[in-house]
Amino acid sequence: MRFKPRDLSSRILLPFCYTALAAAASFLLRAYLTRTLSIAFDFSVILSAWSGGFVGGLVASVTSVFAIDYLFLPPVYHLGPLGYSDAMVALLFLATASVVSRFVAKARQNEGERVARLSAESMNEAKDYFLSQVAHELRNPLATISMALEVWKSDPNNSETAQLAIDTISRSLKLEIMFVNDLVDWARIKSGKLELHIRPIRLSDVIEAAWSVVQNQAESKDIHRQVSIAPEADQIETDEERLIQVIWNLFTNSVKFTPNGGHITVTATSLDGYVNVAIRDTGRGIAREALPHLFDSFWQTYGQDSKIHGGLGLGLSIASQIIKRLGGTIRAESDGPDKGATFIIQLKKAVRQGMS
Predict the structure, then answer these.
(1) Could you tell me if 105 and 53 are in contact, meaning their C-beta atoms sit under 8 angstroms apart?
(2) Which range of residues forms the domain containing residue 315?
(3) Does residue 133 sit within a domain?
């Protein structure tokens, strides 16, 4: 079997280094270690066995015997045949070191297996949680559709009932489609297959298209919106559909977490070839410790938000990856709970066509 470079380092090179350090320490402290010269070499064997297994410990054991013979046994600085008593001591050291190496290597192996087992268990728990959340999110719109159909069937000739059922089914289907699209986009991003189509667009059109998706929900909560776009920031080269997806996601979060009568402000400015889009809300804000994890995949599912508002926590992760693919950045700012939040997107005004 061929050794990998890492195996060669841990099994051969590191034991030599540990032995050299033990020899140097023993030589410098020889006046104080007259009866325990091997103590430093014992440590080198243990460290070598921990890093390189039984082979590493064996290499350290053999090199330690040669180092002790060369540096401390008369005639010093000379390798030669050992006397009977010295040979017995050397054999005893080798035997003891071999046993210790086997014990330490086994302990390291057990520790590695324990860590791997805990990691696998953690991954299985995360997978099970993810699958349960996926099933939950897929089931909810389907259950709503099923109930709407039952209501419609109970009174098929009532036009108001029919219209209510149709509206409910339409909303539920839109939620289902958006949820599935999130999963598909996440899979494409992870596999590097997310396609971008770069062309000149107007930022104001993107913002209006994104707002139209959440407008009814915002109006039902009496949330007011204000938009201010500098003329020089309105023209940009990017993927219109993907940028709508990103801003729609930010609008969705702002509307979701902003109380009735709140405000959402959108500003866009241009500076040094970049366009900065800031979406501010007067919502419940973001805790400081949550900010570093806000764009992690599935992060929301481990908090209370998933129980209250639903979702897998993929939206912001997908938004971050899309903006990154477009050559820009996205970040979140908040002064804390109940103090609102601001999401800032920075994009180049002109994007290299090769990125598409």
Answers:
(1) yes
(2) 199-355
(3) yes
